[in-house]
Amino acid sequence: MDTGNPGPSSINELKSQLDLHKLSFKDFDSIVLTHLHTDHSGGVSEILKEVDLPVYVHENAEWTITGGINEFKRTNEFFYSFMEECGADPREHMAIRTYREENWGNVSYIRDKDTLPMAGISFEVLYVPGHSQTDIVLWDPKTGITFGGDLLIADFSVNPFVEPPPPGMENRPKSLLQYRHSLERVKNLPLGTIYPGHGEPFMNHIELIERRLAEQENRCFNIQECLLSGEKNVYELCGMVYPRLHGRMIFLGLSQIQGHLDLMETRNMVEGYNKGPVRYYKLVL
């Protein structure tokens, strides 16, 4: 279940942990990815150099896995334009990404409500977009055992990252709106112990979801307060709400602010409009 970051240090740490349990990569029959973020999928190529395993990942990962350099360039162009639209300087704040050709061989693309057998248990696949466009949760309806990926983490709130639209589509997904829908969906399920992508296992997912939704409401209020003095772009709002974010970490704040502005627009709380390449927002009075 997930492979960690790319590079020898991460793989060696994974091997060390497996050694403690007298296991190796040869003892596994598949790799299951909860989503395609690098800290979860970055070790796939290194593992596949040692063992031939099928990889299971949500179907929305296909264009990234198979798109090659063209998809890499399309994604970079989207983030450059997004930074400009926010009012940020992409040359200062955009993460430097290096293209790496991947060949994962036997990849199976899974969908919502598919069944995935693991360790003698038939886990149901739940597609829960928001944090990324490839997020899944795996749960056993009989026991409630759940592998939650990055949908819910007990120690900190999850960032619904802005991502480009699928190839051939024009409008980006509204990540926070998706994330809230995903939270509401799993809130109604009888989940038991949740094993997250970061941190310790936990229970009482309903209480945690309600806390995360309340935090989002508080952020909307903070943004509303910032806009009382007049129109602002996403970068300006980010500086007010997250003053400690600088350099290439700015994207984390831009995603959060943009997501909450998307939510506020659906509630008719703010209005967005362009001035040249930059998009500004003001309160709807």
TrEMBL record:
<dbReference type="InterPro" id="IPR036866">
    <property type="entry name" value="RibonucZ/Hydroxyglut_hydro"/>
</dbReference>
<feature type="domain" description="Metallo-beta-lactamase">
    <location>
        <begin position="8"/>
        <end position="198"/>
    </location>
</feature>
<dbReference type="InterPro" id="IPR001279">
    <property type="entry name" value="Metallo-B-lactamas"/>
</dbReference>
<dbReference type="Pfam" id="PF00753">
    <property type="entry name" value="Lactamase_B"/>
</dbReference>
<dbReference type="InterPro" id="IPR050855">
    <property type="entry name" value="NDM-1-like"/>
</dbReference>
<protein>
    <submittedName>
        <fullName>Glyoxylase-like metal-dependent hydrolase (Beta-lactamase superfamily II)</fullName>
    </submittedName>
</protein>
